[in-house]
Amino acid sequence: MFVINFKLNLKKIFIVLLIIAALIAIIIEFGFSNNASISSSKAIDKYDYILEESNYTEILKMVHDNIDANVNKTVKMVGYVFKMADFKEDYFVCGRNTLVNGEDNIAGFLCQSKEASKLTENEWVEITGVIIKGFYNQDMPVVKVGSIKKIAAPANTYVETKKQ
After folding, report:
1. Mean pLDDT by 10 residues, the chain (164 residues)
2. Cα separation of 14 and 9, whole Å?
């Protein structure tokens, strides 16, 4: 007969389990977060809306006019960073300039990103993300950003406002 005598050190077992749990949490947080919000049901290279000079204001108007029907739609767009003093720390507008009745305005989406504080005013970016329903003075579409890429300003920084 063979007898093994051992003593369990519960403190060491607890520490090992805590380390394993922390590693799993890190893998889940950082291993899948890069494009998790975009890749939920769509391939990363396919978007519901790609905003370009020719359709920019039409898509913005359509999404703003019917927020609920556009929740969870994916977006890809280019614009410059615009921030207001009363924005939350993780908010910015990705927008383009447009002329309305001879007046220069910004048209774009309110965006939410952990990276917003690293962006500087008037910096040009390409973003991809998913539309969620948010609030800033009223209900509005907000793009929950999946990726941000800093880019050079396009040759034409204005977009045309289509007559309705």
Report:
1. 64 74 70 40 71 93 96 97 94 93 90 95 97 94 96 91 64
2. 9
